[in-house]
Design brief:
The structure is a single chain. With 258 residues, the chain is of the alpha+beta class. The chain has helices spanning 2-28, 33-54, 105-113, 147-156, 176-184, 189-199, 213-222, 245-255, and strands spanning 62-65, 71-76, 79-84, 89-92, 95-98, 103-104, 127-131, 136-143, 162-169, 230-233, 238-240. The strands form two sheets. It has a six-stranded antiparallel sheet. The chain has a five-stranded mixed sheet with strand order 7-9-8-10-11, with helices on both faces. A hairpin with a 5-residue loop joins β1 and β2 (71-76).
Length: 258
Amino acid sequence: MVHSSSRRMRRLALSFGAAVFGFSLMLAAPLSQAQKAADGAAQARVRAAMEQLTGGRTKVDEVRATPVAGLYEVRVGTRLLYVDGQGKYMFLDGDLIELQSQRNLTQERVEELQTIDFGVLPLDLAIKQVNGNGKRVVAVFEDANCGYCKRLRADLVKLDDLTIYTFPLAFLAADSETKARKALCAADPARAWNDLLLSNRVPDNPGTCDTPLKDVQALAQKLGITGTPVVFFSNGRRLTGYAPPEHFGKLLAAHSKG
């Protein structure tokens, strides 16, 4: 059995080597006039698409073919981008971008995969705050020492008709847990959490009451949350990080049920 397996491995290695050799010959083979013309036209389309994308502000230093059929390397200084020969799609830092709409197709797919069933969130572990009629709903994971969480909180409290379920996390600094505990143990946890993030006002209590911090931490791990802030909209879509008010408002409208 050992000798038979070794022979199969040698045959596989020889076959693979022959395939690689054949591929290298294909790359080395000179292009026909028709192929050169097609390649030149593709490079021109790629260059034009990149210039249109940046409004001519970015100089494309070089466009050249890659070993992958139909994919071209675009060099801007020392940075490399990869664009298809039709000038429609681009790989940017590993993400696939649709050039005309500037949609990040990779990010959209990741967000789709990260979508949850909002109804399964244990909202009883969260701090609840209702603005106006509260018909729009979000769940937010925040750390009291997170700078972007503070910016997000300042935006959230200004929004009308919004229910905010806040899941306090404690992992950014040594006193994150102390601050979270004191807010959760306050007579009005929602107000205390707002004061903590917006004014850095730590509640004056020992913070020794029972809190759901460990359960929230376990929930965050289950959801793959490794940083803050993280927002879940009512349709289950996730926003990781801070979004400026105008962009956040569009996301809230797009991902709110009803």
